[in-house]
From TrEMBL:
Record-linked InterPro entries: Aminopeptidase_N-like_N, Aminopeptidase_N-like_N_sf, PepN_Ig-like_sf, Peptidase_M1, Peptidase_M1_dom, Peptidase_M1_pepN, Peptidase_M1_pepN_C, Peptidase_M1_pepN_C_sf
UniProt organism field: Roseivivax halodurans JCM 10272
Stretches assigned to the Peptidase M1 membrane alanine aminopeptidase domain: 219-432
EC identifiers of the protein: 3.4.11.2
Protein's name according to its UniProt entry: Aminopeptidase N
């Protein structure tokens, strides 16, 4: 039996809380096993509400005493919260509770990480700190007093008086409790100053444990770039005297946008050239921007309830992608986002975990911090911007900030702003928020007289709870090329609203080649049976970088599928076309590296599944391997020159230019290793003077099964650095030959440094197993078993991280009977486990269907 019968919450049941909160005073007497939290909350009846039930959330709290307007009261307490008789006029509620941060292994609420106190309150963690209406539509100003002998004591807002053993903070901006934060510890800061556009001085601090200060420069630079960008592009200024960021080693997610006190997983903020890869630097820059941008899209304007999560997350992801596109290369960013969307969101949207961008029900909200809410949520905003145009988008955003500052909003409010700013009716567009599943778009061409007509058809397969789908608005960006390669129709936006719709281009002197869905203008699967010839033509001539890349991708997909189904040799014409592109010195090396990347094995499994073929993970693995071998053979003559071109002689910088070269170099090294068995990779590993080169060499060696010495050397050198050791654990599983991946995973769980209660370490091991497609899906079920065991174990300590990792099983029904039986047995064993968390029960329950 499950822990407690999980409660399902519905969007349609929303009602406002019966009381408003005018102000909150909190005092913390910190102690690892017995922290006292004393709260003083000023409530008033909410004129907008009818239900006057006074219920305060509270979990795992020991209530010491409670008072209303100074008089002791005895509330009725359950394991979910308390209820109490209250006056029908404004009143002050006070409570003293005791909590034990040192015993908090769920890392939600107030907990400890390496001797430091920190908090994570989103989504519903504040209720583990004190009794409170823990819902985002209750907003209040907070004053906080922290009592502790630790040297650094932080909370939200601006600093107040600081004395021996205590500090005070005051946050003048009304906020929901999920944005509350507290940090206390022995910390050091890199400090800086930012002057806002209107001349206000902001003190910036990035706090870390002693010893990590050399990893803080990049984070502070990224923060300053983000602050400037949000002023220039969105007209948004920062609004407090200080902005603090703290790095924490034990953290369930990437980072958290608490008002004025962002808390980061150290993997999402700490960087140095020795210990971090180019990809790490880029990700850190993006996450710092993301959390900073939340100050306006999330904090100043927040969500009415958790169903509206995409209101802040979709928008903030969209904003951080714009930022990265501006800081680096826009086409490279767009292509990378499409790769990530297909790798993470498509499988979710096409399997048992499919849910709308704005879900309509949930049991555990932590299970809905998903690629659909975040990444598809951002795609929806990208489509809206394309449909209304850039100027109207800016106007709508200005109106959004002006109209809703200080409010807790809904998707309806968001869309209304666009309707008012543009006069457009967005009723149909709204389906993007309510319909789940990935639409499929098919195309037919007709050329008659001089009329060229494209006929599109859209369908969305059924998803859990949604059998019938209505047509969605699809912005389809199209360009047309004539047979000599010139663009005859530049990018044009077709607005599809019907299930089937035709668009005619008159006066076309010859039949053009269409370049469809340019820039990936809608998050759909395009079923376009273009000939290999047309694809090769687009690969050579398309002016839209995304479509050009996609032409190559789809040739690779076709070649791989043919070799899986018909045992054909890799497509030589494709390899030669690609070779011309990859050796073209006029093209950006980063783009060339992306051109060399192949569709993931997981994506190929999905393609086969949709063709009605049961995917065989081993055959897929073999097909990819033989394509890479063929590529290496066929490009043998140009690999040395490419490797030379990818060499960077300037001092290391994690910028777009150098990263692009190293990405190309890494792809080339992968091919070289297939020819030389690892000689070039060994040399690169030995001479590497930065982590990017070191890790790409190590990866190539692991793949070639020639990494034993390098892994040992790497471990010796980096055993003192947690974040680097996460890479060491991860890479040898992720890139292991599939047959050995489960056993290697098991062996590594016995390594003394496998500190599995640390979410980063757990993910490095188990997430990498899940990422090794043929290894995880090994026919004997060993991959499923080991992950199942560890999910069960972690669930007892940290349900949130365990439940997230469980989604590794989301595609289990695609495979053959034997694999399915093994996956099902693992999931059922988990589901039946006594005391299973509600988080895990919801995830496994949905996957079992
Ligand atoms: N709001 C954070 C972000 O996207 C994510 C925090 C999610 N935390 C959680 N426990 N679900 O930046
Ligand atoms: Zn976010």
């Amino acid at each position: 039996m499950k822990d407690a019968s999980p409660q399902t919450v519905y969007l349609k049941d929303y009602t406002p809380f019966g009381y408003t909160v005018e102000h909150v005073d909190l005092t913390f007497r910190l102690s690892p096993d017995a922290t006292r939290v004393i709260s003083r909350i000023r409530f008033a009846p909410n004129p907008a509400a009818t239900d006057r039930t006074f219920f305060l959330h509270g979990e795992e709290l020991n209530l010491i005493s409670a008072r209303i307007d100074g008089a002791e009261v005895s509330p009725e307490v359950t394991d979910k919260g308390l209820t109490c008789e209250v006056p029908d006029t404004p009143f002050t509620f006070e409570a003293e509770v005791e909590i034990a941060p040192a015993r908090n292994t769920a890392l939600e609420g107030l907990y400890m990480s390496n001797g430091m106190y920190c908090t994570q309150c989103e989504a519903e963690g504040f209720r583990k700190i004190t009794y409170y209406p823990d819902r985002p539509d209750v907003m209040a100003t907070f004053d906080v007093r922290i009592e502790s002998d630790l040297p650094v004591l932080l909370s939200n807002g601006n600093p107040g008086p600081r004395g021996e053993g205590h500090a005070e903070w005051s946050d003048p901006w009304p906020k929901p409790a999920y944005l509350f934060a507290l940090v206390a510890g022995e910390l050091e800061a890199r400090s800086d100053v930012f002057t806002t556009r209107s001349g206000a001085r902001v003190d910036l601090n990035l706090w870390v444990r002693p010893g990590d200060l050399h990893k803080t420069e990049w984070g502070i630079e990224a923060l300053k770039k983000s602050m400037r960008w949000d002023e220039e592009v969105y007209g948004r200024e920062y609004d407090l005297d200080v902005f603090n960021i703290v790095a924490v080693d034990d953290f369930n997610m990437g980072a958290m946008e608490n008002k004025g006190l962002n808390i980061f997983n150290s993997s999402a903020v700490l960087a140095s050239p020795d210990t971090s890869t180019d990809a790490n630097f880029e990700r850190i820059e993006a996450i710092i921007a993301h959390e900073y941008f939340h100050n306006w899209t999330g904090n100043r304007i927040t969500c009415r309830d958790w169903f509206q999560l995409c209101l802040k997350e979709g928008l903030t992801v969209f904003r951080d992608s714009q930022f990265t596109a501006d800081m680096r290369s826009a086409p490279v960013k767009r292509i990378s986002d499409v790769i990530a969307l297909r790798a993470r969101q498509f499988p979710e949207d096409q399997g048992p975990l499919s849910h709308p961008v704005r879900p309509e029900s949930f049991q555990e909200i932590n299970n809905f911090y998903t690629a659909t809410v975040y990444e598809k949520g951002a795609e929806v905003i990208g489509m809206l911007k394309r449909l209304v145009g850039d100027d109207a988008y800016s106007k709508a955003l200005d109106l959004y900030f002006e109209r809703h500052d200080g409010e807790a909003c809904t998707i309806e409010d968001w869309l209304k702003v666009f309707e008012d700013a543009t006069g457009r009716d967005l009723a149909q567009f709204k389906r993007w928020y309510s319909q789940s599943g990935t639409p499929r778009l098919s195309v037919e061409e007709r050329y008659e007289g001089s009329d060229y007509t494209l006929t599109f058809r859209q369908t969305t397969p059924p998803t859990p709870g949604q059998a019938e789908k209505a047509p969605q608005v699809l912005p389809i960006a199209v360009g047309l090329l004539n047979p000599n390669g010139d663009e005859v129709v530049p990018t044009t936006l077709l607005e599809m609203t019907e299930g089937e719709q035709s668009f005619t281009f008159p006066n076309m002197p010859s039949k053009p080649v269409p370049s469809l869905l340019r820039g990936f203008s809608a998050p759909v699967v395009l079923d376009h049976e273009a000939s290999g010839e047309d694809k090769a033509f687009l690969l050579a001539h398309d002016t839209d970088p995304y479509s050009r890349w996609e032409a190559g991708r789809s040739l690779a997909r076709a070649s791989l599928i043919a070799s899986i189904l018909e045992r054909t040799e890799p497509d030589a014409a494709y390899l030669d076309g690609l070779k011309r592109l990859v050796t073209d010195p006029a093209l950006d090396p980063a783009f060339r590296a992306l051109m060399m990347s192949l569709p993931s094995q997981n994506e190929l499994a999905q393609v086969l599944h949709e063709k009605g073929v049961t995917p065989d993970p081993d055959a897929i693995f073999e097909a990819v391997e033989s394509l890479l071998r063929a590529m290496a053979e066929r490009w043998r003559d140009v690999l040395p020159a490419l490797a030379e071109e990818a060499r960077v002689s300037a001092p290391y910088a994690p910028d777009a230019e150098q990263s692009g070269k190293r990405a190309l170099g890494s792809a080339v090294l992968g091919l070289q290793t297939r020819l030389d068995g690892g000689a070039a990779a060994k040399a690169q590993f030995e001479n590497a003077d930065n982590m990017t080169l070191s890790l790409s060499a190590l990866g190539a060696l692991v793949r070639a099964d020639a990494a034993e010495d390098a892994l040992a050397a790497f471990e010796t050198r980096w055993s003192g650095d947690r974040l680097v050791m996460d890479k060491w654990f991860g890479i040898q599983i992720m890139l292991a030959p599939p047959q050995v991946a489960p056993d290697r995973t098991r062996a590594l769980t016995e390594h003394p440094a496998f500190d599995w209660t640390n979410p980063n370490r757990f993910r490095a091991v188990m997430g990498s197993l899940a990422g090794n497609h043929a290894g995880f899906h090994r026919a004997d079920g060993a991959g499923y078993e080991i992950l199942g065991e560890w999910l069960s174990r972690l669930d007892e300590k940290n349900p949130q991280t365990a439940a997230r990792m469980a989604s590794a099983f989301q595609t289990w029904t695609r495979y053959d009977d034997e694999r399915r039986a093994k996956a099902r047995a693992t999931l059922e064993r988990l589901y039946e486990k006594p005391g299973l968390s509600g988080d895990m029960a919801e995830m496994v329950g949905r996957m079992l269907g």
